[in-house]
């Protein structure tokens, strides 16, 4: 059975509420989506739905923009962080496979 996302990851917040929470205009939020900085889901009627994690991300993006960081730079940083996270996960998986293969257990 698939694990359901945590409340923080659940995409349930409308763009209007996100705008109120972040202080960003709906146009700014859509722009950040166009720049591939945030990825809302769409309801069956096509309305954007965001998570609390998206709200936090949008606030972080807005803060960086106020500091003069360009959206391209923000996106590149996001890509680098995602690659680092994937590398750590691969390393953990490999370590787990090796431990399982050779019967190594974690010391407690």
Automatic annotation (TrEMBL):
UniProt keyword annotation of Transcription present: yes
Domain named HTH merR-type: residues: 12-80
Gene3D superfamilies xref list: 1.10.1660.10
Swiss-Prot/TrEMBL keywords: DNA-binding, Repressor, Transcription, Transcription regulation
Molecular function in Gene Ontology: DNA binding; DNA-binding transcription factor activity
Coiled-coil boundaries: none
PANTHER family per record: HTH-TYPE TRANSCRIPTIONAL REGULATOR TNRA, REDOX-CYCLING DRUG-SENSING TRANSCRIPTIONAL ACTIVATOR SOXR
Entry protein name: MerR family transcriptional regulator
Taxonomic source organism: Gracilibacillus thailandensis
């Amino acid at each position: 059975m698939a694990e359901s996302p945590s409340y923080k990851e659940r995409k349930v917040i409308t763009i209007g509420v996100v705008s109120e929470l972040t202080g960003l205009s709906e146009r700014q939020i859509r722009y950040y989506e166009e720049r591939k900085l945030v990825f809302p889901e769409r309801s069956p009627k096509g309305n954007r739905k965001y998570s609390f994690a998206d709200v936090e991300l949008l606030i972080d993006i807005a803060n960086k923009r106020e500091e003069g960081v360009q959206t391209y730079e923000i996106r590149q940083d996001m890509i680098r962080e995602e690659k680092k996270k994937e590398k750590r996960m691969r390393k953990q998986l490999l370590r787990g496979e090796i431990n399982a293969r050779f019967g190594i257990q974690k010391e407690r």
